[in-house]
Amino acid sequence: MKKTTFYNIHEKLGAKMVEFAGYYMPIQYNSIIAEHKAVRNAIGVFDVSHMGEVFVTGEKALDFVQHITVNDASKLYPGRVQYSAMLYPDGGIVDDLLVYKFTDEKFLLVINASNIEKDFNWMQQNNKFGVELSNQSDEYSLLAVQGPFSKEVVQAICDKELDMEYYHFFESKVAGIDMIISRTGYTGEIGYELYFKGTVAEAEKVWNKVFEAGEKFGIKPAGLGCRDSLRLEMGYCLYGNDIDATTNPLEANLGWITKINKGDFIGRDVLLKVKAEGLKRKLVPISSDEKVFPRHGYDLTIDGKKIGAVTSGTVSPTTEKPIALGYVDFEYSKEGSTVNFFIRGKEVPAKVVSLPFVKK
Amino acid sequence: MNVPENLKYTKEHEWISVNGNIGTIGITDYAQGELGDVVFVDIDSGLSEIQKNQSFGTIEAVKTVSDMYGPCGGKVLEINSKLADSPEIINSDPFGDGWMVKIEISDMTELNDLLDAAAYKKLIGG
Q1: Do strands A23-28 and A16-20 pair parallel, antiparallel, or not at all (unpaired)?
Q2: Where in chain A are all domains bearing CATH 3.30.1360.120?
Q3: Residue-level pLDDT at A141
Q4: Cis amide bond preceding A78, omega within 30
Q5: Domain residue ranges of chain B, discontinuous segments joined by +
Q6: I need a surface site. Which of A129, A218, B43, B100 has the fewest CB within 10 A?
Q7: A238, A314, A320: best to mutate for the B interface, most B CBs within 10 A
């Protein structure tokens, strides 16, 4: 089992540690709800060092990225980040990822922790462009500083003007340590992610700097538990729950990142066919006014007949209402459609709604 | 980890305090810690009887749902009404305000195979 550079800090803070993707990770420090609210209303800090970082370099770096991902990486310029996905030839999703463009010949792909080995193998297998692929996942620490006060806090410790739009990044120093700072996150709040290499002592120095700067804003360490509830309130997909090798991006509501007309890429042929034939099912946001708690795997029914299944579900810490993502047969996917959560033998009325679940 | 001496425990992390033939049942400090923030306790308001090792309701936490099992059988005398509006008292006071049901124990011998505090502590690795 691997430990991130912040492991000692988590232990000292009394975090509840769980095994996640081969790492000991903090699921919560004290309360998922309190941490969730800290991120929505003030500022929270996540150790997400388990995420994977693969650098793509070489003359044909862009061609490689275009071939292996669904979004149009030719639209990127240095300092721009893009949400994307890699597909199998049958249209199933290998992983969702972030693409960072440094130069025409250098990209960084940030991938899910549970998929690092699979993804890296996939990239190597499909490297017909002679690019260099460097998996630096074990070397990078990653802190996600998220919440309404994150700009003030990151600005206070960063030696460059933090005048950055959403999904942009630059390189800078924090506490004397080289860092990639990007305005990204998976919480729906303004936030920054700090990528850096370094020792445990250096990582702890960065953590302490962030917390010193954030003290007056009520900064809190935040665990993976609230990371999940925060992303679900926004309707963001989680690989392994809402998307996987058996789902295609069009039915998963990822049509907006799938640029079918950008040129050829792995999985495109199947997506063209899916488009022509129409979707059979769709991932939809579902909510209910009942006191009910949908969970991954629960059936969605109409008149006792299964028409889909929940892929992610919880009670929203913000609205205190049940929220879920799930696949339903296409005919029931329209906003306003009524479906039922099937929970312990009972049908509970619910409705297909629009995203995000929590509106600003 | 708080494991009061005067209670009996199940392997599924319920506790029961016994006073004559009246039993009060809740979940342990360890259980609430594992569940995390409790957001709803689902015990049917019409529940009249519970049975040993049978689920008598569910506890919903942010991350997960868990069944509650009867440590022994009995007639339900009272369901903790505070849980409806303040389920979080299970997190803050699992052995006190966070109790769940009071029962009239139907067969005292069903208590015999429950764990004492020392055995329960061992079970949870404390």
Answers
A1: antiparallel
A2: 2-49+138-232
A3: 98
A4: no
A5: 8-108
A6: A218
A7: A314
Query: Please, what is the Cα angle at B114 between B19 and B1, to 5 degrees?
Result: 90
Residue B42 CB coordination number (10 Å): 18
DSSP state of A201: H
Q: For the domain covering A235-352, report its CATH number.
A: 2.40.30.110
Please give the C-alpha separations between residue B51 and each of A167, B72, B94, in angstroms, as whole numbers. 56, 6, 21
Residue A181 backbone class (left: φ over 0; alpha: ψ -120 to 50; beta: rest):
beta
- Mean pLDDT value of segment A195-214: 97
Question: What angle do helix axes A224-234 and A32-41 make, rounded to 10 degrees?
Answer: 60
Q: Which residue has the tokens 């039993």?
A: B23
Residues from chain A that touch B60, judged by Cβ atoms under 8 A, are 293, 315
Crossing angle between the packed helical segments A150-157 and A200-214, to the nearest 10 degrees: 130
Confidence (pTM)? 0.91
Asked whether the beta carbons of residue A32 and residue B39 sit closer than 8 angstroms, the reply is: no
Q: Which CATH class name applies to A2-49+138-232?
A: alpha beta
Confidence of residue A6 (pLDDT cuts 50, 70, 90): very high
pLDDT over 90 for what percent of chain A?
96
Of B33, B58, B62, the CB nearest to A315: B62
Q: Please give the mean pLDDT across all residues of chain B.
A: 94
CB spacing of B60 vs A225 below 8 angstroms: no
Q: Which of A33, A293, A295 is facing B37, going by the closest CB pair? A: A33
Does B63 sit within 8 Å of A32, measured CB to CB? yes
| Cα–Cα distance for residue pair B91/A291, rounded to 1 Å | 20
**How far is residue B101's CA from residue B56's CA, in Å, rounded to a whole number?**
10
Domain A52-135 CATH class label: alpha beta
pLDDT at residue B25 in the model: 98
| Every domain range in chain A assigned CATH 2.40.30.110 | 235-352
User: Would you tell me which CATH number, out of the four given (1.50.40.10, 3.40.190.170, 2.60.120.650, 2.40.50.100), belongs to the domain B8-108?
Assistant: 2.40.50.100
